[in-house]
Here is the input.
Amino acid sequence: MTVAYGAGRRTETPFRFDNVGSFLRPAELKDARKRFAAGDISREKLNSVEDASIEELISKQKEVGLGAITDGEFRRSWWHLDFMWGLHGVEKKDIDSGYQFKDEETRAETARLSGKISGDGHPFIGHFQFVKQFEDDGVVARQTIPAPAQFLSELQRPENKASTDEFYPDQDELIEDIAAAYRTFIKELYEAGCRNLQLDDCTWGMLVDENYWKSRNDNISVEDLSRAFVTLNNKAIEGHPEDLTITTHVCRGNYHSTWASSGAYDKVAEVLFGEENVKAYYLEFDTERAGGFESLAKVSDGKLVVLGLFSSKFPELEDREEIKARIGQASKYIPIERLCISPQCGFASTEEGNILTEEEQWKKLALVREVAEEVWGK
Here is the structure.
């Protein structure tokens, strides 16, 4: 495949060669976190190790050619819960069972309400400011957080329903406070210099999975939940500055190289792709569990799609010609100038990480870059 339809390299996010955000934690960082949890080192010492690990990670991201850099989520244990724990009115809780993935269960932790929700003074603001200092020409600092819909889903888990109902007997008030907390966070993040925010959202992968619906005993439909989720997400980002690029990442679970849900985007495409007010979608497309590209025809005008054609779960490198052929297939439904490529998810959505080495991680990203340059040019 060659460059076509006026497509070429991009100088703003999302980039033709992109990444979802998280990276495998180095051994020194894993050890420091364990020692801190055991009380063997101070918070200051842990912060020092985190800072050094992130600085080295950022250098490697630049070396591989990424235009958007992150802290790799190195200061987090989870891709989503750590953000929720940083909101006022939310506490960390151990529970009886974790999230169920294919043949594996995660650690059993959750975010539970302890009061009314607000979003001021979030610790992630400081985390972003550390990354911000490493921006340079052509390189922008990106912040990743769970989508508002993901937070709502966590609060509605059976283990959390009682506390959620205690503080929010009115569902509408809960929705308003979640949205307001996010708007506060986004305002403070923007003031800290952020111009690229990514909302990670597994709720859509859940909605298209048949097993999810077998577990429900109410009369709510895919349409009902889709509209509830997109309404909340839009309410949370409404009024954001025009020069703040907000995107969303959708996948079907990513834990220790396993997955949680399966199903094509078709059932939610009209609402998700047509109505969510984001600039771009980072979409899982590395296996047949995500279905075909037909649903991309529902992506509303002007929005971009980052095709997650490469797997962050396994070290094996994809066949570049097959990848280019799949880009061609996708371009039948959305113009190639509105397409980019990346792995389907991060390499370590939780601190456990996927089952591959750091060297294999960087080789995978190098391949993504090479394919992007072959398709869209350097």
